[in-house]
Amino acid sequence: MQQTREIEILKRALHREKESRKAAEQILEQKSTELYHISEQLQTSNKKLEELLNSKTSELEGVFENIIDAYVVMEISGEVIRMNQAAIDLLGYDISKEKFNLRHLVKEEFQEYTNTAFAELYHKGKFNNYNAVILTKNKEEKIVQINASIIYDRAGKPIAAQGIARDITEETRIKTIVEDQKRKLDVVFNHSPIGISLADSKAEKLIFVNNAVCEMLGFTEEELLSHSASSITHPDDEDRSQELRSQLYEGKINTYTLEKRYLKKDKSYLWVKTSVTAVRDNNGELDYQVATVEDITKEKIAKERLKESENRLSRIIMNLQSGILLEDENRKIRLTNQQFCDIFNIPAPPAALINVDCTTSAEESKMQFHDPEGFVKRIQELLENKETVIAEELQMVDGRVLERSYIPIFNNGEYKGHLWSYDDITIRRRYKENLKAQKDKYSNIIANMNLGLVEVDNEDHIIMANQSFCDISGYSIDELVGKKAAELLLLEEYIPDFYKKNQEREEGISDSYEVKIKTKNNELRNWLISGAPNYDVNGNVVGSIGIHLDITTQKQLEEQQKDLLKSLEVQNEQLNDYAHVVSHDLKSPLRNISALISWTREDFKDKVGDDGILNLDLMQNKVEKMDHLIENILKYSSLESHRASKTIVNLQDLVKDIVSMIYIPDHIKVIIKRTLPIIEADATRMQQVFQNIISNAVNYIDKEEGLIEIDVKEDDEHYIFSIKDNGCGIEEEHFEKIFKIFSSVNSSKTSSGIGLSIVKKIIEIHNGKIWLESVFGKGTTFFFTIKKSE
To answer: Could you tell me the end-to-end alpha-carbon distance of the chain, in angstroms, rounded to an integer?
Structure first.
């Protein structure tokens, strides 16, 4: 049973196996049929793919050959495998003729960047916008932009690379130029001293402003861009501005320039000159308004001041006592005054003469003058020569005498017209004639008076003597003229004092004194001499005048002597006062001249030009020098009459104050070797002494390293001071000359020639003396003594 059952199981298993094999055979047959059909389909597809591949390859070949940019296929190492004509044209190499490595064409400074780019290509499969500079076969530099990708085999392994290179050399150059121009334009725009703004077509909104506009108005750029051109315009100027903006918008004008006021952030206003230009599109429609803005506030103020100055000058001229006529280069009247009309009896107000042509005026008015033809000829000469002429006298037919001045006016060397000035000096002329008559009268009186009068020069040579002097001296005029008065007449013991008096005359001092003289007949006589300095027209002492009285008889009469001495004291005081009054009176016209020059310079500085200003400055300097000279003369003349007021003076402190007060250049050192003493003296005059000598030392140091040494020694009665410098030195022949008034070894604009004379006089007043030692070219040492207090 058991065996039968196993056989039955085996049979069933065998049957199942047969059924399964049969089913498998059916399936295999079915799959074989499907596989066959699939194989047929694959063969058909492969054929189509091969045809498509051939077609695409042909298309790519066409693209490769005809692409505009350079196309290159290369090995991973950079060896070029294939290239199109554009690549040949770009690189100069032809792969069909010679092999080359693309990486070797890259400039050295781009090698590292190129290596990095190739590594990126290898690992990432591509790179884009790789820029480098390469050297072509003919060594020409080219800037190229390359986009490349990797070519893989069927296994995905990189076998080559392909890339398109575009020549961007010219593009880069143009781009660089454009960027540079843009940068320069930005620099100019932002750093321009003139404001620049850009507004929309109706100027209702500011689009852009530069720094200059912001700085002018005090706004930030952001604040200003929130405004319109109208909102920052002064209300009084807005109507005109709006009118011009409308004309610009409507196309009636393309540009306009306007002076107006702008509102600043701080609510103040400034004057500007703005020029606005239209920017239109191709259809002529307004796109933008470009404006330049220039701050002219200062110019406006200057114009107002100039106008005020001109008005002030006109008022001054109108009220001058001189007749003024200002003509332009065409001889048209630009300005005149009532005094001019009055002098020439013109029956018209000055305003009616403006712009009148004066070309024939000389011919028309010549009959008013004593010499008609000479008047016309002289006018023509002045106009042709164009040179300044001052105070020419003209004789009028009616007996009047006029003084005429002609001043040409130049601006930057260009002739702009001329100024005529006429003064009626009839009364002055008569006064001069009367003065001459008086002089002649008094000359006759002098010639015949009983007092001997002598005029001598600065060397004591007799120039003139009256008859009375001849009578009391016993000499004739011929025997006196040219002789030295002291040597001819004085006893020997009086000669030193006499020369001292003469020196005082040179210093402007007048006085009286007694001397004993010896006449021609060897007779001894007592004379009283009253002497005074004699000045020329420029105020310079040219000698002295002495009045001589023989008082021999009076000496014997005591009472008469007292009366005479009293009389002489009065005369001496009057002569002293006269000398000081004359010196002081010289300063008044100098101040007037200085003021007029200052006014002229201030009021005409924009008209007379640089040469005119220079001439006015030179005149001012000369006036100041003359004033300084007169001041020093007064100081010098007052030294004797105003005795020293002595106080306790610390000379150490005084000299330190002087050194800190006066100008001493950096290359000059001032050293006080020993502490200066405290003395009893006039502090102001001590300051004059030290300041004069130290200032002279500073002025005449010509070395690169200047040195001034101040020292003091003493003996039983005196302090002995020394001031030593390493300046240019003084030749020995000038040692005495420099202490004389108006004497100076070197010509200097600041030197009046009085300083050392004042020093000498002050030291003598303090019972001291002054002298010097000097080596020419090496330096000078001034010594002076001051007597110690008792």
So the answer is: 182
In whole angstroms, give the CA distance from residue 323 to residue 422. Answer: 5
Strand arrangement of the beta sheet that strand 779-787 belongs to = 668-672, 706-714, 718-725, 779-787, 770-775
Q: Output Rg (C-alpha) for the chain, integer angstroms.
A: 56
CA dihedral angle for residue 328, residue 329, residue 330, residue 336, rounded to 10 degrees: 20
Residue 681, phi-psi category: left (phi > 0), alpha (psi -120 to 50), beta (remainder): beta
**In one letter, which amino acid is 615?**
N
User: In this predicted model, what pLDDT tens digit does every residue of 127-181 receive, in sequence order?
Assistant: 888 888 888 888 888 898 888 888 888 788 888 888 888 888 888 888 888 788 7
CA distances from 468 to 450, 510, 531 (A): 5, 22, 16
Sign of CA dihedral 733, 739, 743, 746: positive
- Under 8 Å between Cβ of 680 and 646: yes
Contacts of 773 (CB under 8 A, 6+ apart): 780, 781, 783
**Tens-digit pLDDT profile for residues 403-436:** 899 999 998 889 989 999 898 888 888 887 787 8
The residue among 377, 378, 430 whose CA lies nearest residue 401 is: 430
- Bridge-based pairing of strands 668-672 and 706-714 is parallel
Closest CA to 725 of 767, 768, 761, 772: 772
- 105: closest CA among 40, 165, 35? 165
Amino acid at 175: K
Rounded-to-integer distance, Cα 548 and Cα 467, Å: 12
pLDDT in tens, 244-283: 888 888 888 989 998 889 889 898 888 989 999 988 888 8
Phi, psi of 316 (to 5 degrees): -65, -45
For the record, the structure tokens of 690 come out as 């030290």
On the 0-12 / 13-18 / 19+ scale of CB atoms within 10 A, 361 is: middle
Q: Which residue has the tokens 């006499």?
A: 498
Contact (Cβ atoms closer than 8 angstroms) between residue 73 and residue 161: yes
